[in-house]
Design brief:
Layout (H helix, E strand, L loop, with lengths): L1 H22 L3 H12 L6 E8 L17 E6 L4 E6 L4 E6 L4 E7 L7 E5 L4 E4 L7 E7 L4 E4 L5
């Protein structure tokens, strides 16, 4: 019987030590581990930011007027995601058009991504517009996954 209690005591000591060290793990390590897990679709196509009207230079000779809409374009090998930034929403289109779901992931990580539908002509609306850095994850009905660069409005 002494061996049994000795083994149980050792097991409890090991469990206590494991719980103690788990509490000491820096939160940034935990966040990094969660981020790696979120990157579960390694085969996703990357759509890079190919145009941002906020950084484009305006041709000389244009009249000053109302604030123009901001437009972002993310381009990838098989898909383009175009976005117009409105006062309270992002309006966008996937090219070529098709039904899909679009996840909006924000930084810092930890929040559950919002998901919006993409209709048959590729249109979608993200409301409210993200206030933090964000990226989009497009999942088409045909099985493609496209992930955009991180962007900030």
């Amino acid at each position: 019987m002494a061996d049994f209690w000795s083994s149980e005591a050792e097991l409890l000591a090991e469990l206590r030590e494991a719980l103690r060290t788990a509490r000491e793990v820096p939160e940034r390590f935990v966040d990094a581990g969660k981020s790696v897990f979120r990157w579960r679709d390694i085969d996703a196509e990357l759509a890079t930011l190919s145009h941002d009207s906020a950084t484009a230079t305006e041709p000389a000779g244009l009249r000053a007027g109302a604030e123009p809409l901001r437009a972002l374009t993310f381009s990838g090998p098989a898909f383009t995601i175009e976005i117009e930034v409105g006062p309270d929403a992002l309006n966008g289109q996937v090219v070529p058009p098709q039904r899909a779901e679009l996840d909006i992931e924000t930084r810092p990580p930890g929040e559950t991504p919002a998901t919006v539908p993409v209709d048959a002509v590729g249109w979608f609306v993200i409301r409210p517009k993200p206030t933090k850095r964000f990226r989009l994850r497009l999942r088409t009905e045909s099985g493609h996954t496209v992930v955009t660069d991180w962007a900030k409005l």
